[in-house]
Amino acid sequence: MTQYAPSLPRPLRLGGLLLAGMLVALGCQSDPDSPTATSASPEAGTRLDGPAPAESGQPHLHAGEDGTVWMSWVEPVGEDWHALRYATLDDTSWAAPRTVARGATGS
Question: Which of 29, 50, 57, 67 would suit a FRET pair with 80, their CA atoms being 20 to 30 Å apart?
Answer without folding.
Answer: 50
